[in-house]
Amino acid sequence: MSATRLPLRFTGALRDLTADDRRALLDRSPMFDSSIRDRTREIIADVRSRGDAALIALACELDGVSLRDIEVSIAQCRAALDRTPPELRGAMERSAANLAAVARANLPTHSECEPEPGIVTGRRPHPLGRVGVYAPGGRAAYPSSVLMGVVPARVAGVSEIILCSPPQRDGLPSSVVLAAAALSGVDRVFAVGGAGAIAAMALGTRTIPRVDRIVGPGNAYVAEAKLQVTGAVAIDSPAGPSELLVIADASCDAKRVALELAAQAEHDPRACAVAVVVGRETADAIEAALINAIPSGPTGIAAREALAANGGVFVCETLDDAIDFANAYAPEHLLVATADDVRIVDHIRGAGTMFIGRHTSVAFGDYITGANHVLPTGGLSRAYSGLSVLDFIRWTTYQRVSASAASSIARDVMVFAEAEGLPGHALAARAAGGI
Fold it and tell me: In this predicted model, what pLDDT tens digit does every residue of 390-404 receive, in sequence order?
């Protein structure tokens, strides 16, 4: 490889992948070491036992802050919003408006079905009672993640939305996080971070109420804590480092594809950024352009590490080969940079979200388009969907059976019940059917 090119873990022809390399590409489920798992378990147990006292101790230990109050007043959030630079506030308002528009368009409705005369089954949506949103605040603060979690929940009609985010040196979460909380309509805010925040929202403490679902990204401890509390609370989806898969052909702008790969790689040294390209010449152009696409500063260092560990540019022979690989890879983000993007989109069945066309940057989806950026990673797009208004709604089904229908179905129900050794069920069916 030329010295002017970045080191990538994966290059060459897609068909020449070794079994080990293919396994490494496809098996991206986050593997937390035992120390993270054990420490997270200890934190959850401590919060369960000592509640607020445990959270205050964790803030001192992990954040270097002596908290007097865990809760942050809504007035402090509004003050942070008032201090927000007009350009950032305008961008946040635009993002919130688009998120709300998309959420309203996807609100579910009550439905009924009559599978047989006299049998009616229905499904009625109800908003969750209380939701907890987690917003990171360690190495970086993300007001966009606040909006992504809160706005769809608000549109769904959730009764109460709480937010947890780590305290800074002044004992408060990041000012931009507080501003986003005020703008999006959070009901209560707590200066609590990490696994302790997840435990508090899942179990409840004297100050922090127990929630029905927890959403939002976080570090390895947050992700592990969400997995460990799933028996007590629902979560959005298991999450790991950011991922981007690009399908490209000769019609793409190689420099722009390289910029997209670098942008997602700057999230985390463990991020995955891979391109599958029809045509060696185009693949070579993308790989060559990566050297100038890396941002400067700390995120550039992260991007270089990520590309060396999990980055790749592959050559494939046909778009069908690229589609097959994309469905097996099941990426968090899929960028389609091809002339025939419609056919590709129609055949993709496993991606968190897709970006279609030469003007559709992944960064647009991270902030403004109204599609949510809280997405499944690690190949879980095969089964999980991105966060949406539907995550803040539960369904109640019901059945109504007429007298004639009860008489009609009672005997078949009795057959089932007797076959399963449940005579009480058979007697109940017989009585309801009037047999």
Answer: 999 999 999 999 999
- Within this chain, do residues 170 and 317 fall inside the same structural domain, yes or no? no
Output the pTM of the full model. 0.93
The set of catalytic residues is: 332-333
In this structure, the answer to whether residues 212 and 70 fall within a common structural domain is: yes
Number of domains in the chain: 3
Query: d(Cα 25, Cα 95) in Å, to the nearest integer?
Result: 33
Domain containing residue 310: 10-30+240-369
3-class secondary structure for 67-87?
CCCCEECHHHHHHHHHHCCHH
CATH of the domain at 292: 3.40.50.1980
**Rounded to the nearest 10 degrees, what angle do helices 423-433 and 403-419 cross at?**
170
352, 319: one domain: yes
Query: Distance between CA atoms of 375 and 240, rounded to whole angstroms?
Result: 10
Residue-wise pLDDT tens digits, 2-30: 457 788 999 999 999 999 999 989 988 77
By the 8 A CB rule, do 312 and 248 touch?
A: no
